[in-house]
Amino acid sequence: MKKRRHTSIAPAPEPSEWLSLSTCSLCLRTLRNGEWIEAETIIRELRSFEHQAPPRLKSAVCDACVESIYLRRAQPEALAA
Prior knowledge:
By secondary structure, the protein is an alpha+beta fold. The protein has a domain at about 20-75: Dna Ligase, domain 1. The protein contains 3 helices and 4 strands, in the order αβββαβα. The chain has a 4-stranded mixed β-sheet. A hairpin with a 2-residue loop joins strand 2 (about 30) and strand 3.
């Protein structure tokens, strides 16, 4: 019978590090250290799935989504015929 190797996993961050996250309401990217990161990356890095409670999410809009909104508003609207 083969013995299974146990790999050590780094401990999950303390709750104080992830309790409150700003998340873009449109694209779901999360603000971390001044950079907007994909939600899947944040979940994996912070290992939030290992904690008893999920992090608190604050609504925000990322820079890319803000720019997209401004560009759409600057375009003249086509009138319905």
